[in-house]
Design brief:
Blueprint lengths: L5 E2 L1 H7 L5 E5 L9 H8 L6 E2 L22 H11 L6 E5 L7 H10 L5 E4 L2 H7 L24 E2 L1 H6 L7 E4 L3 H4 L17 E2 L15 H12 L7 E4 L6 H10 L6 E3 L2 H5 L9
Parallel strand pairs: 1-5, 2-3, 2-4, 4-5, 6-10, 7-8, 7-9, 9-10
Helix pairs in contact: 4-9
């Protein structure tokens, strides 16, 4: 059996040590980019590899392509092979940020054609609450070859501008409501949102304990967000293409697949003063 959306802590515990399973720690903080590596070195789920949000899950910055541009597929594929992700590997990703960072790797793997990837539901906190062990020991897993088969999961700024406020695109912004409104903007150079985008804060996908809401509940909420649009008309964005992946995962859990990501998101959009802002 393969897992393509979520895995709970109990299921993961039964597969620790399984050579066909690989856990990946992607803890990260935007204001402290060395945080993830430090806490990983101190303790992590046994057997977990580490990938860095900026270095591994993002490409080079140009000043106009957003804060977390997409990595080159061949470079990400090589990195995945280095940590031991093969065609049959069940990948489980986790963070300590309610899935905000882990969702990025979930989507990137699917973008490269690897469906056997799931989030640890509830993240590191759920693992610890279930009595899961932690270790500082680094995994020793042989490298392999990861072959990327890139899918149509992304759109660019030109696509967004071409279909702005048309029925061809239903744009969903995953940022907090205040940042969507242009208030309390402390990360990007301009406050506001892309015209026509509606707001669905990614944390609305979660229950109070940090786990995802049941599929039926997510489906009802997301059908209201879609307001008659089909899932394949939905384009997700956020500040830099990270937390928006959480909304994509929620739609997948809800049985509403087919949406895409505008990876450049607000940080790329607002870097060009010629693009409209609301």
């Amino acid at each position: 059996m393969s897992y393509t959306t979520l895995v709970d802590a109990a299921t993961l515990a039964t597969h620790l040590g399984d050579p066909d399973w690989l856990v990946v720690d992607v803890r990260h903080q935007l204001a402290d980019t060395g945080y993830g590596e430090r806490v990983y070195a101190e303790s992590h789920i046994p057997g977990a590899a580490f990938l860095h949000c900026d270095r591994d899950l993002s490409g080079p910055l140009t000043g106009s392509n957003g804060r977390h541009p997409l990595p080159a597929p061949e470079q990400l594929a090589a990195r995945l092979g280095e940590i031991g992700v093969g065609p049959q590997t069940q990948v489980v990703v986790y963070d300590d940020a309610q899935g905000m960072i882990a969702g990025r790797l979930w989507l990137l793997l699917r973008w490269l054609g690897h469906d056997r990837v799931a989030l640890l539901d509830g993240g590191l906190q759920a693992w610890q609450d279930a009595g899961g062990a932690l270790t500082a020991e680094r995994p020793r897993r042989p490298p392999t070859v990861f072959t990327a088969r890139v899918r149509d999961a992304m759109v660019d700024a030109d696509y967004v501008r071409a279909f702005l406020q048309t029925s061809r695109m239903h744009l969903v912004d995953a940022r907090s409501p205040d940042r969507y409104r242009g208030e309390n903007e402390t990360i990007d150079r301009v406050g506001g949102h892309i015209p026509g985008a509606i707001n669905r804060f990614f944390r609305e996908n979660l229950q109070a304990d940090g786990r995802f809401k049941p599929a039926a509940e997510l489906r009802a909420e997301w059908l209201a967000v879609l307001a008659g649009s089909s899932p394949d008309q939905v384009v997700h964005q956020c500040g830099s293409g990270v937390s928006a992946c959480h909304n994509m995962l929620a739609m997948e859990i809800a049985g509403l697949p087919g949406s895409r990501l505008y990876a450049g998101s607000w940080s790329e959009w607002c870097a060009d003063c010629g693009r409209p802002v609301a």
